[in-house]
Amino acid sequence: MTASDLEQFAAWIEDLIRRRGYDIDSPRGGGKSRLADEAGVHRAAITRLLQRQSMPDLETTRRLAHVLGVPVRDMLIRSGRLSEDDLPLPAAGDGAAGPAAARRLTLEEAAAGLGVPADQWEMFIKVAGQFLPAAPARRAPLAKE
Fold first, then answer.
1. Torsion sign across C-alpha atoms 63, 66, 70, 73
2. Cα end-to-end distance, the chain, whole Å
3. 8-state DSSP, 105
């Protein structure tokens, strides 16, 4: 990582943070604190990034990506840590990488794929949903055929 990588990444993420509605220009630092709280990271990590002092670690990057609604892949590439060659997207015709690969599984699809009995889906969804920052939209369980 070069100083240029840090500057470019910080400028990009600063703009993204503002577009997501975080007031990071306030002298009181309310937007930075809110972002840090929502991402579950230390405010100092946000401050160091915005002041172009250091790149966030991988876990902080992952958490920020989720809160800001961007793929971790994009964050890693824009930060200069990895290249597009390091993180290739699946080709459209790859066997396992069909249309489902481009979207997140719903908790219902996960329950079905894991073989959770239909009468236990509600409990599975409640428990599994607690581990997700934002659970996907839920559908009513399908009856076993």
1. positive
2. 54
3. P
pTM over 0.70: no
Domains and CATH numbers, the chain: 3-78 (1.10.260.40), 101-145 (no CATH)
**Contact present, 125 and 107 (Cβ < 8 Å):** yes
Give Cβ neighbours of residue 61 (< 8 Å, ≥ 6 apart). Answer: 72, 75, 76, 79
Other CB atoms within 10 A of residue 23 CB: 14
- Look-up of token digits 């503002």: 18
pLDDT tens digits for range 99-145: 444 567 778 878 777 888 878 888 888 888 887 765 444 444 554 44
Whole-number Å distance between alpha carbons of 82 and 93: 24
107 in Cβ contact with 74 (< 8 Å): no
